[in-house]
Design a protein that fits this description.
It contains eleven helices and 19 strands. With 431 residues, it is an alpha+beta fold. The protein folds into three domains: 92 residues, 2-Layer Sandwich (Transcription Regulator spoIIAA); 101 residues, PDZ domain (Pdz3 Domain, Roll); 210 residues, 2-enoyl-CoA Hydratase, Chain A, domain 1 (Alpha-Beta Complex).
């Protein structure tokens, strides 16, 4: 069986090589060189996915036949090669595995380092509706200031339907020069007070956003005096390159102020760097597994605490539908190890791990290489994490209201820290 597969592979690559030679015969030298260069670039991307992608069936298709489909195509420019690569990757039906053109790749690298330009939205394509869905607006961004919320669906960008666009095409349309405007048509689920139909109702409206330079401050913290308790409130907005350092500073400062307990706010946190999530988990967790990662062979790797917690005080984590990816790693790690209680609403449910590959022309390739499991071996992809105490917010909050008496979820978290579970208002508890 192994020998037959090996012979088949050798035959395939020989056929490709002969095809290349056949096409190049008669071409002007410069044209032949360009053809070979574009085919090599395409093949390099194909090889990365072939070696790294988490699903060994490649969405139940023959990945070698997918490659053969493009063998011999004369890509007249790098843009045509990009388009072919995007079409090839689309066959995986995985919005997180995608090509990032040079400007997109630079933007992603800038974003994870702590600053970016645009409207400030973390987005994903809904697997069922194919519309663009908001994971979370970035704190202080034009989108957040305009009231865009987690789980809003963006059905149009400047009157063009997002249902026919890829994730990167949507992102491109929302980018632009600072001060320019973009109009988003948003569909938002709303409650049905009359309950005349079991169907979810929705409200559709336009939001005009002015693009801006967005500085991402990953951590905001303060010490709140709640009766006889000192509660350290820490809001973590994103797992970027500054998150771990800023979190350590926040905990150390609040410990010096004699905090009795903590509320860690991960609401609307779309994730980011997995390593930042692991480092932050170690600041709270003395021992135990933080996360398991499972690759295409089913091999499990794990990251564990290393007995370096900065505090052992009681902890409640606030979650909602915008708590995603690395936020879910952190929530799951501290919850499954009994280090924290979760309060709020169910998390987003993104349990896939991507790796970024730099390509020769300055572009990049994001490839799903594994899925992760919480310490209790729970795969939360598409299902999310249900909190210990479900508290549904009574109204949208402004930035200044977070972590105050106007914030019903924060108030409930303080009650939980004080051992006053029974005092949590039934009117704010869902489920």
């Amino acid at each position: 069986m192994v020998k037959r597969s090996r012979i088949w592979l050798i035959s395939l690559f020989l056929a490709i090589a002969l095809n290349f030679l056949g096409i190049c015969v008669g071409m002007p030298p410069a044209e032949a060189a360009d053809y070979l260069q574009e085919q090599k670039f395409f093949t390099d991307v194909w090889q990365i996915v072939n070696h790294s992608y988490v699903d060994s069936t490649f969405n139940h298709q023959n990945w070698y036949k997918v490659r053969k489909k493009y063998t011999g195509q004369k890509f007249k420019s790098r843009e045509e090669t990009y388009d072919a690569i995007q079409a090839m990757l689309a066959s995986l039906d995985d919005p997180f595995t995608r090509l990032l053109r040079p400007d997109q790749y630079r933007s992603m690298q800038t974003s994870t380092s702590g600053a970016l330009t645009g409207v400030g939205l973390q987005i994903v394509v809904d697997a069922e509706t194919k519309f663009l869905t908001v994971v979370a607006p970035i704190e202080g961004s034009p989108a957040a200031k305009a009231g865009v919320r987690s789980l809003d669906q963006i059905i149009k960008i400047n009157n063009a339907s997002t249902q026919d666009l890829t994730l990167d095409e949507c992102a491109d349309r929302m980018r632009g020069t600072i001060g320019s405007e973009v109009t988003l048509t948003i569909s938002r689920a709303v409650s049905n007070p009359e309950k005349t139909s079991p169907e979810t109702l929705s409200d559709t409206f336009d939001v005009i956003l002015k693009r801006d330079l967005i500085a991402v401050n990953p951590v905001i913290f303060k010490l709140n005096h709640e009766g006889d308790r000192k509660i350290g409130y820490i809001r973590l907005n994103q797992f970027n390159g500054n998150a771990a350092e800023d979190m350590a500073k926040a905990i150390t400062t609040l410990e010096a102020q004699n905090a009795d307990g903590y509320v860690l706010d991960l609401r609307g946190n779309p994730g980011g760097l997995l390593q930042a999530g692991i480092e932050i988990a170690r600041m709270w967790l003395p021992e135990g597994v933080i996360v398991y990662t499972v690759d295409r062979q089913g091999i499990q790797d794990n990251f564990a605490a290393n007995d370096t917690p900065l505090t052992r005080d009681p902890l409640v984590i606030l979650t909602d539908g915008g708590t995603a990816s690395a936020s879910e790693v952190l929530s799951g790690a501290l919850h499954d190890n009994g280090r924290a209680k979760l309060l709020g609403t169910r998390t987003f449910g993104k349990g896939l791990v991507q790796s970024l590959f730099s390509l020769e022309d300055g572009s990049g390739l994001a490839v799903t290489i594994a899925h992760y499991e919480t310490p209790n071996h729970t795969d939360i992809h598409k299902s999310g994490i249900q909190p210990d105490v479900e508290v549904i917010p009574t109204k949208p909050l402004t930035r200044k209201q977070l972590g105050t008496e106007d914030d019903t979820q924060y108030v409930a978290a303080v009650q939980l820290l004080r051992g006053e579970n029974s005092q949590i208002s039934n009117a704010s508890v869902g489920g």
